[in-house]
């Protein structure tokens, strides 16, 4: 072979290897479902501000689809993959009080990140939390006022409105970017993972914590279905 041709091929070799390595990034697709018969929906009485809040509210601590897929389960990779390209972080996290309900019910914020608490209701709310690792707070909040709260340590923090006892929300302070919250279809996804075995943790406010394991390959997306049982 022509020496110049050999040199050209050798010069291109690192580039080819780099592209091949990038192509090895795997995908993980999952679903969180409820095991057993679906419980009947629960309503909680509204005892104050009925003119705006109504007379009752769905408990919303267990939201299931017709196929018993679980909404608002939080899924994360127990040990983040070293050297993997990190998924982008959400620049702004907001938690609103709308119709006497926290919307959304569960948010994820990175360590050191800030949640902007909003109040879209024409009445007074408050936000109250007593976390173990982050700073406690209890702030009254009239309509239109934004209250930013920064969370410095990884933790799952319960948020209450003392004025409206049925109002509950959760702030999940994530230790790394590989966290996801399931939607109404109970599904979650992680992309650009190096192939290999992974351990997952799945948390739900009513059903507790469940571990799961899955192996990610470099061809088809890995699939996992996680069942959560009533406690």
From TrEMBL:
<keyword id="KW-0732">Signal</keyword>
<feature type="signal peptide">
    <location>
        <begin position="1"/>
        <end position="25"/>
    </location>
</feature>
<dbReference type="InterPro" id="IPR008972">
    <property type="entry name" value="Cupredoxin"/>
</dbReference>
<dbReference type="InterPro" id="IPR013784">
    <property type="entry name" value="Carb-bd-like_fold"/>
</dbReference>
<dbReference type="Pfam" id="PF13620">
    <property type="entry name" value="CarboxypepD_reg"/>
</dbReference>
<protein>
    <submittedName>
        <fullName>Carboxypeptidase regulatory-like domain-containing protein</fullName>
    </submittedName>
</protein>
